[in-house]
Amino acid sequence: MSRHIKPSPSRRSFLGQAAAASIATVALPTIVRSASANEEVRLAGVGVGGKGWVDINGAAKYGKVVAYCDIDTGPNRRGGYANAAEKWADARGYTDWRKLLDTEGKNLDAITISTPDHMHAPVTLTALRMGLATYTQKPLTRTVHEARTLTVAAKQAGVATQMGNQGHSGAGYRTLVEAVQSGALGKVKGAHCWSNRPIWPQGINRPQGSDPIPDAVAWDLWLGVAAERPYKKGVYHPFNWRGWYDFGAGALGDMGCHIIDPAVWSLELEAPTSVSYSGPKPNPETFPKQETLRYHFPATKQTAGEIDLYWYDGGRMPSAEQAHLPSGFKLPTQGVMLVGSEATLACSHGGKPAIYAGGEPQKITKEIGGADHYQIWVEAIKGGAEPNSSFAYAGPLTETVLLGVIASRVDAGELKWNADKLQFSNSDAANAFVRQEYRKGWEVEGL
Question: Per the database record, which ranges form the Gfo/Idh/MocA-like oxidoreductase N-terminal domain (predicted)?
Answer without folding.
Answer: 82-164
